Amino acid sequence: MSLASVALASIVPTDLTGAIAVVACAFLVLFVAFVVFLALAPVVSETWTERLHATPGGSALEAEANEAD
C-alpha cells in the first residue's frame, strides 16, 4: 500500500454516521464563517456599510403618497 492510500483510509470515515457527522461539521463551519463575514464586513470596510444602507434605484413596490387618490 502506498502512503497516500494509507492516509486516505485513515481520514475517510468507514461508517455512515461518521460520514454524516463530517459533512454536518463542514457545513456548520461554512455557515459560521459566513455569519462572521456578515458581522465583520461593515467594521472593516466603509463602503460595505454604504451598500447595506443603499436605497434601490428602481421603482418601489409600494405606491407613492402623491400617486394615491
Protein described:
This protein is mainly α. It has one domain (3-51). The chain is 65% helix and 0% strand. It is built from three helices and no strands. Helix 2 (16-44) crosses helix 3 (46-52). The model has no long low-confidence stretch (mean pLDDT 74).
Question: Low-confidence segments, ≥5 residues, pLDDT <50?
Answer: none
Average of per-residue pLDDT values: 74
Note the beta-strand portion: under 5%
How many distinct helices?
3
Number of strands: 0
Described by the principal axes of the CA atoms, the overall outline is elongated
Task: Give a brief rundown of this model.
The protein has 69 residues and is mainly alpha-helical. Helix content is 65%, strand content 0%.
What's the arrangement of secondary structure elements?
Elements: H1 3-11, H2 16-44, H3 46-52
Helix pairs in contact: 2-3
Tag the structure with descriptive keywords.
65% helix, 3 helices, 69 residues, elongated
